[in-house]
Amino acid sequence: MTNIVHIDKSRGFTRMDNALMESLATVDLPARDLRVLMAIARQTIGYQLDTKRLTADEIGKLTNMRRDVTSKSISHLLERRIIYRVGGSRGDIGISPISEWLFYEENLSRLTETKTSHSAQIVSLRSDASETKSATSLLYTKKEPLLTLSSKEINPPQPKIEKPKPDRKASFGMAQLLADNPHNVPAQLLADWLTQRKAKRAAVTATVWSTVNAELVKCADAGITASDAITEALTSGWQGFKASWIIKRLAEAAPAPAPQSRHSGFADRDYTDGLIVREDGSYGF
After folding, report:
1. pTM, 2 dp
2. Which of 92, 190, 84 is nearest to 139 (CA)?
3. Could you name the CATH architecture of 17-152?
4. Under a CB-based contact definition with an 8 Å cutoff, are residues 216 and 190 in contact?
């Protein structure tokens, strides 16, 4: 009787390099990382593939572990250069050449107790990692051998560029209107005009007020006071202000003059012209 264990070829089997088997036996890895590594080896070497796209969910089903646990294990194996990715954080995964492996954890000064339910005596040899942060510290390459740059050299921190804050426009309100009021418009009319502009969502600026004052000069030339002009604009509900509008509006509202009769001038006539004055004071021919 021999001690040789025969392989049932009908169920399939995985051929693995002896050096890789010996490295798996000697590498210093936590149990969960070793389980993830064996699952990756089964899905790649077992199918004679160099790399294969494996998600954390798929590896979790193969190892019977939660997704977040498998994600941390993948990050740890990438940091130790035991596995590598081709492309980005969702690229294919493969097992690195043994010469690239870090068989022992380098940073031993950060030993912390892991929060695992298997044993309170298990000690983690690395800092906590998350899947979202792994992309800044993992090595990605499509060429051999793998890069050995640190995460800071691969993705150097970029300085934050603060966007310049836009300059706030100085407010233009009642105080500015009264300070620049060459036509002596009453304060109440100015307040009503501001209220109407705000209701129509029309900004009031120094440029707008300067334009209104220029139009008030045209109104004064036409014999219309500034108060009457502003009042007419408020009554009409206008957002803008034009002297031509005011002049036309007041002209249309003015009463039309009464038409003169053709039979006029009777009081100016001398009805005694050509008549003879009688003794009794009457006139005759």
Report:
1. 0.38
2. 84
3. Orthogonal Bundle (1.10)
4. no
